[in-house]
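Allow me, if you will, to draw on your knowledge of protein folds for a short while. I have a record of one protein: its chain in single-letter code and its fold written as discrete structure tokens. I should value your view on which stretches of the chain appear to form regular backbone elements. Thank you for your consideration; the sequence and its tokens are set out here:
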Amino acid sequence: MKWLVRIWLSVNVLVLAQAILAQQTPSSGGELSVMMYLLNMPSSILTGIGLNTLGPINNPSHAIHMLLIWMPFFTLGTIQWLLLGWLIRKISRS
């Protein structure tokens, strides 16, 4: 399970780095949201609903804008992996 979490963590960080470096793409915020949505399924459903409720993020800095989109998906995805690990340990002890 550890290798799976490491791969997930690496891919999430690479997605953020790519989004920050690709500044010339006008829809890069939407692309980042979709990629994070797919990487962090099923917790990303609630994250997407929350971000849509807040509306568009108006921030002059591209990097901060991408980080503000990436952070909620990553946080809930991390919580999801922690809960999954806890559940696996609890079941294996039973």
DSSP finds four helices and no strands in the chain. The mean pLDDT is 78. The radius of gyration is 15 Å.
